[in-house]
Write a structure and sequence with these properties.
Blueprint lengths: L2 H6 L4 H9 L2 H6 L4 E6 L4 E9 L5 E9 L5 E9 L4 E4 L7 H13 L12 H36 L1
Antiparallel strand pairs: 1-2, 1-5, 2-3, 3-4
Length: 157
Amino acid sequence: MSFSAHIGSRTSAKEKYNIYNSLAVLIKAIEGQKTTVDLRNESTVTGILEQADGFMNIVMKECLFTDPRGDSFTYEMFFVHARNIRFVHIPPHIPIIPAIQDELRKVSGHPTREKNPKRTLRDKNVQNAQREGLAGVAAVLEERKSKILEETTSESK
C-alpha cells in the first residue's frame, strides 16, 4: 500500500472541512505532478507531490532540495510541514477551476452521475418557467427603457 493511499483513508472531519473551505483542495488536485515548493527560509523543494492533506502538509518524492546558499541535495521522500510553506507552484498545464471541481467531487465521495439525456416533465416545466420569468424581466426592462426615452425626449423639447 502506498503512503498516499494509507493516509487518504484516515481523513478527519476537520481535515475535510479544511479541504472544502480552503485552497488545500488545489494542492490535493496536483498530487502526482512535478512541482516546486518555496519554503519560508528561502529554500526550495522540486519534485513530485506524492500526498497532501487538508492542513496543507505535503510529502514529495524524488526531490531536489536547494538551500538558501544554493547547495542542492536529493531526497527520495521529503515531508514539508504546512507552516514552512511559502508558495506552491501550480504547474502551468493544470486548469485550476476544473482541477478544484474534480478534486471536490473526489473528496465528497459522491460519484458523479451522467445526467439522463431524456427530459422529464418536471425539467420541461422548470425550463418553461425560467423562459417565462426571463421574458417578464425583459418586458419590464423594455418598458423602463421606453419610459426613460419618452422623458428625455419630452425634456429636450
